[in-house]
Amino acid sequence: MGTAQFAVLGIVIVVFQSTGQESAGHNITLNSEAGNAEQNKASVLVPAEEPTCVPGFKSSRFIFKVSTKFLKPHTRLGKVAFTDCTDRTIFVFKSDDRHFTVQGDGILKVSTHVKELVHIRGNQDFFVHTWTSQGHNISVPVRVLHHSNHHGDHIHHNHQHHHHHHTKVDPANKTQSVADQPVPILHFRKASAGLRRRKRDWVIPVISVSENVRGPFPLKVSQIRSNEDKVKKIFYSITGPGADQDPVGLFVMDRDSGSLYLTQPLDREQIDVYKFLAHAVADGAGMGEEPMEINVKVIDQNDNKPVFSQDTYLGEVAEASAKGFEVIKVVATDADKPLTDNSDILYRIIDQEPKLPADNLFEINQNNGVIRVNAGGLDREKYPKYTLVVQAADMKGGGLEGETKVILTVTDSNDNAPVFTQPLYEASVAENKADTLVVTMSVTDGDEPHSPAWNAKFTIVDGDPGGLFTVKTGTNKLEGIISTVKGLDFETSGTHTLMVAVENEVPFATSLPTATATVVVTVEDVNEAPIFDPMEKHVT
Q1: Cα separation of 297 and 315, whole Å?
Q2: What's the confidence (pLDDT) of residue 395?
Q3: What residues have CB less than 8 Å from 471, skipping those under 6 apart?
Q4: Domain for residue 177, yes or no?
Q5: Domain assignment of residue 348, given as a range
Q6: Is residue 371 part of a domain?
Q7: Tag placement on the chain: N or C end, fewer CB within 10 Å?
Q8: CB atoms within 10 A of CB 260
Q9: Per the domain annotation, does 479 fall within a domain?
Q10: Could you count the other beta carbons within 10 Å of the beta carbon of residue 112?
Q11: Which helix or strand (DSSP H or E) is residue 357 part of?
């Protein structure tokens, strides 16, 4: 056959059908041979109704002829035509052979990741996969065939009664495309004789997939291979959680190539490991490989910020608290993997209001969230409340952040001593009268009203050795009421000088002087009737 005749070897012979399924009643066949235009013919059977479109490749098999045994990177081979019965023209294609890649428009090329010439030894067979808009996987076999120029016979391939796509390589095309990322390939252990069941006695590597991976989906994560696939047609499948059990369809496997795909992003905080079984069965054989357990480990990403146990914490701090006094503890947790930087939290105070009398009145332990008093100067009378903004950040303080508020009420400390309104009180009491009011003394206190640090407590500390008087606190808590316990005797003592001290119900928070007052009690003489002593006397 001459050169002119060879030029038509690349003309396409195509049967328009969908992945091995004919549209009933609608079959279009196009044949073309060199130098015989009269043989061109088209046979059309038109049904009564327009057939329903079925997504699929436009041929059940694609064969690409090349005239050289060595292909350069970027070399364009041709196109694998596909439709999903929508207006889409760009799809995600995957090639089982790392030497070849398929662009979104279906153009098959030698991979850009190949650094050396690709040697075509006779036939190079592999599968190309894509997915419909509903996520259904569709695959088609592809053959790259080396055919020397001096062989001019037209090659017509027939596989399962289907015609195939033939084209010729365009070695001048240098357009770049993105190749598949390498994925781990897991092999069923080689059996001694064909496919048969056997004890699983080897360790299958764990497949690791990062959570929140962006795709595009379906995303190839691994490939399962049987050593028998060189001599037999093997069908692959998976069963178990994530496959045919909840969550159903998270992982899918191409039945022809054994490629394992992820269909959507994973969330480690929901499930951190997926375990399911992979199966390999030879076409027409009832016995298959022992199922292989597949473990997919979800790699944690820092996708969760620390969360505090409360949106707002409420606490109290006494105004007289010393430096280092523990006030309150805040707690934040991170849903990412424990004992990793993704969940390693550090705390810090990022704001204090008011910033008086200093902006660092409080400090926080960065590791455990304990807040302590950092400096003196708390004064309830001036600044009764403080609001802190506390931040927790993962990645040892450099990652995602969460915040909370801490509202601290400054409680009163007994830092103000009660003081008598006057230093000297004088009173007169008729003699011989018990339970008689002598005097009422008043005091003032600068602490919080009606608090234990404000309520007064009185004590007679001198001048009453006989226990003739008592003092108690009045109902308003700022009065000291002195009364007689026994009747006083003018003839015994005409005056009594008492010293009364005042304190509070709780001890002083700081060193404070104790206030005292003097009470002078004058005993009034009463004209008493003479009393014989003894009352009766006998005379003889």
Answers
A1: 43
A2: 92
A3: 458, 459, 460, 480, 481, 482, 483, 500
A4: no
A5: 307-411
A6: yes
A7: C
A8: 28
A9: yes
A10: 14
A11: none
